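User: Hi! I'm working on a homework problem where we have to compare a predicted structure to a textbook description. Could you give me the structure for the chain below?
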Amino acid sequence: MSNSEPCSQQNPELVALHHVGAESTALLQRIAAASGCRLYSTAEPGHHVLAGWPDNLVRARTALLGEPALTSVRESVECALRRLDAELPLQATDESRVKLTTVAREMSVPTGTTMLVSREFSFDAAHNLPRYHGKCERLHGHTFKVRITVKAPLDAWSGMAFDFHHLKGPVEERVVKVLDHTYINETIANPSAEFMAAWIWEQLKDLPLHEVTVWETPTCSVTYNGPCKSV
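Assistant: Happy to help. Predicted structure tokens:
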């Protein structure tokens, strides 16, 4: 038997082994001894009992992996180890390792700080440009991407300027659901990316808009900063 002391058990674990061939018994005895276990034979031929502490059984199981003739023995040892795992009590959590003990000091934010907050959306739609002489004059489709950017003062207490969630609702309801999987010309006359950006701005003008960007392709986009302001 191994000299290793058990952690919580007073008796070694016993694993019943059945139908072990005579030619495999000698090999099993060597593995048991090398793993710190003991192998006991019963009165019934081919039936044995493997005794060992959990750590010893783990070593035996590892040694058995390379012995196809003893697959059934390995499976019996694995079943015993799984049962032992389930029966072992959970170790107490060291609260000092998980409890929040310190927080960073408040960050100083200059009065009047503003932020640009953006959120991106996409939709699929078809359009054509009737006043353009070229391929885009014909009906075609795009996966359009839109980025909406608002400008808002930073709240020094919450650390937020404009909630991303408050962008999602208006844009999806007033823009994405209106244009997605449609023929855009039925909503916007001559729907170039430029006119689309201006139209989107108009639908969202109650928001503190900074700019609207529309991509027709991953490499082609336009940005609209709102109506010209008189000087």
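For your comparison, note the following. Residues 1-8 have pLDDT under 50 and may be disordered. Strands lie at 13-17, 38-41, 48-52, 114-127, 140-153, 209-217, 220-224. Good luck with the assignment!
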